[in-house]
Each structure stands twice: as structure tokens, then as C-alpha cells.
């Protein structure tokens, strides 16, 4: 069974109401009263299986990495790394290189590409 989509009340009727879930609070709300034929209400029973909980959408388990030595302890089959925000540019590049050598997925590598962009064309 796939992931259940819970949509916000009225999101299908109005463009200004986004899909992101909000609890229905109206006094006469059919969704709040859980009437038959209406969208389902978010409840604890819709929880994911224990094996899927805490996984990144890519399917890997996330590991926070602060230095290149920590990359060696990561299992490339089941885990992906996220580089800590406090890591500087030089160490970040070393971590990414070591991850590529070991075949490990880096979840926040995009930030590095943005920083190393051509600065001459920026802010014309």
C-alpha cells in the first residue's frame, strides 16, 4: 500500500487554498465529523511501517557527517550522508571526493554546485 495523500479541506475548490494538510475546524465540517464519502482525516493508524520510518525519500537512511573520516564508516548500500552545515568549503570538497570514491550518495551536494558557480555572470 502506498502513501496516503491527505489534502486540505477546500483545496480542490479554490486555487488560493493549497493542498498542504490543515485540520478541519468548522462546526459543520463533514470532514471533521468523518462523514462517509468525504476525504479521510489524518490519524495515528495511517503510520508507516517501522522499517520505512525515518528514511529519506530516496530510500536511504541519513547520516550526518562532519569530517572526511566519518565517511569511511558509512554503508553505501543502506546509508546516504548529509554534510553538516558548520562544515567549511575546503572540508566539504574533501568529504564529497571521499564519498564519490566509496560510491556514497551525498544528499546536500547541490549547495556545493551553487557556491562554485561562475561569479562573473552573477549580479549583472
TrEMBL record:
The keyword Transferase does not apply. Keywords: Ribonucleoprotein, Ribosomal protein. Residues 16-31 have a biased composition (Basic and acidic residues). InterPro entries: Ribosomal_eL32 (IPR001515), Ribosomal_eL32_arc (IPR023654), Ribosomal_eL32_sf (IPR036351). Residues 1-40 are annotated as: Disordered. GO terms for molecular function: structural constituent of ribosome. GO terms for cellular component: cytosolic large ribosomal subunit. It comes from the Archaea. One of its GO terms (biological process) is translation. Pfam families: Ribosomal_L32e. Belongs to the eukaryotic ribosomal protein eL32 family. This is Large ribosomal subunit protein eL32. It comes from candidate division MSBL1 archaeon SCGC-AAA259D14. The lineage of its organism: Archaea, Methanobacteriati, Methanobacteriota, candidate division MSBL1.
Amino acid at each position: 500500500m502506498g502513501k496516503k495523500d491527505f489534502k486540505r479541506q477546500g483545496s480542490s475548490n479554490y486555487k488560493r487554498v493549497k493542498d498542504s494538510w490543515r485540520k478541519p475546524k468548522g462546526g459543520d465540517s463533514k470532514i471533521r465529523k468523518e462523514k462517509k464519502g468525504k476525504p479521510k482525516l489524518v490519524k495515528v493508524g495511517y503510520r508507516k511501517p517501522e522499517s520505512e520510518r525515518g528514511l529519506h525519500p530516496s530510500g536511504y537512511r541519513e547520516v550526518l557527517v562532519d569530517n572526511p573520516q566519518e565517511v569511511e564508516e558509512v554503508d553505501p548500500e543502506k546509508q546516504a550522508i548529509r554534510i553538516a552545515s558548520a562544515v567549511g568549503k575546503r572540508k566539504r570538497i574533501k568529504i564529497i571526493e571521499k564519498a564519490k570514491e566509496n560510491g556514497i550518495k551525498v544528499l546536500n551536494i547541490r549547495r556545493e554546485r551553487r557556491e562554485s558557480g561562475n561569479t562573473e555572470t552573477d549580479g549583472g
